[in-house]
Amino acid sequence: MKRRSFIQGSAGIALGQLLAGCGAPREGALRVRLLEDSVSRRLLRRFQQEIRGAFPLQIKAADSLQDLFGLLQQWQAMRQEPGERVLPANILTLGDYWLSGAIAQDLIQPLNPETYQGWEQIHQRWKAPLRRDRQGQIDDRGDIWAAPYRWGCTAIAYRQDRLDWIPSDWSDLWREELKHRIALPDSARQVIGLTLKKLGFSYNHEALDEVPELVPELRRLHQQVKFYGSSTYLEPLLIGNISVAVGSSADILPLIERYRGDRFRKIGAIVPASGTDLWQDVWVRPQASDPPSADAIQRWVEFTGSLKWLKC
Fold it and tell me: Is residue 85 pLDDT above 90, yes or no?
């Protein structure tokens, strides 16, 4: 779905005041950079009410996780310029895919949230990949570099009213009746990963030269695709230009809920039986970022990652 700025609207606390993110970075404020639409306006208002003016809150949104990773690199380069004064965000959204590179390039510092409220209740499946060595490799004796605040998987959405069968696995994307009726993510990693699963390999199998069927299968899959996209891929599903879309459960599940009961746009979704790609978005602390108070980051992470807000 198209990401829309959460600055729109004025219910409750004026969001223009809440986000205060259009100007230059402010000293003494908790500076947050996040993925657009990944934290609801309601949640931001409630956090503002909870801190009761203990510190100013300055929030800016980015269109993609890649843009946020690029910001980390930009701040790092600026820090190395003589006389350059940098005020990076105190806390920033990062996808788990980017975590290894951020650590290896010295773009972030350990977060170590073991004492944060709710940390113990998070399943080890999500916590284990966040403990890493200084090269960014998973290490159960390493520091904890991030804290999760939302997670999900890659799923298949489909028009129930346009198919007389129910997709069940990745292999269904190659069916003849879906030729030019599919939207796939604009991500080589995702497209290769789902093709590997179709061939019986792990989603993240690295030795691609050991899979001779991979390239022919990718070519066949390409013939099925109407377009590639990662932001507006669900609109064509709604209007009927395509019958199937592959994307994030974070996008698909709200769409199903929104159109539940709509007899003209019946949307279904499945997690492929052979397995899929799990992901989590996390909070990280950029290098050389000083929060306005000792507990400001902790309060932000605890609130946005609270179990009462998280949806798996």
Answer: no
| Contact (Cβ atoms closer than 8 angstroms) between residue 43 and residue 284 | no
- pLDDT per residue as tens digits for the range 9-32: 222 233 344 444 444 555 578 999
* Structure tokens belonging to residue 124: 């080890």
What are the structural domains of the chain?
15-150+282-304 (3.40.190.10), 152-278 (3.40.190.10)
Q: What are phi and psi of 22, to 5 degrees?
A: -90, -15
The owner of tokens 């309601």 is 42
What pTM did the predictor assign? Answer: 0.76
Rounded Cα–Cα distance for residues 248 and 65 (Å): 13
Q: Helix axis angle, 41-51 relative to 296-304, nearest 10°?
A: 140
Per-residue tokens: 288? 């050389």
Residues across the chain? 312
In sequence order, what are the beta bridge partners of 152?
279
Q: What is the 3-state secondary structure (H, E, C) of 112-149?
A: CCCCCCCHHHCCHHHHHHHEECCCCCECCCCEECCEEE
